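Students often ask why we bother encoding 3D structure as a string. The short answer is that it lets us treat folding as translation between two languages. Here is a chain of 112 residues written in the first language.
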Amino acid sequence: MNTALTNILDQWKSAIDDHDPARVAALFTKDAIFQGLHPYGVGRDAVYEYYDAQPIGMSPQYKVLETRELAENLLLAYLTVDFTFTDRPTITVNLSVLIADGLIAHYQVSRL
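And here it is in the second language, the structure alphabet:
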């Protein structure tokens, strides 16, 4: 697996585990397109607001399914993510991310 991808995803997981939306947002480009399970937003403020609203104790466990190197320093990844909670059932989603120069430039979640 790509080292840059593992690095960014492990930081993303750690920041979510710590309920630190500022750290999560810092992993995204300033103009990132962000689509969680709510209407999409653009930029770090949208990412911050989304993760700030998530419950403490939420934790993602991810598995990378596919990657494509689109260009130098541009990587597309497709994952499955289980978001676990302390007080509700796990939510499983598919996640596509575009990593540009070590930051997340596009984040798209879908539920099946």
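Translate back mentally: Helices lie at 3-17, 21-25, 44-52. Keep this in mind for the problem set.
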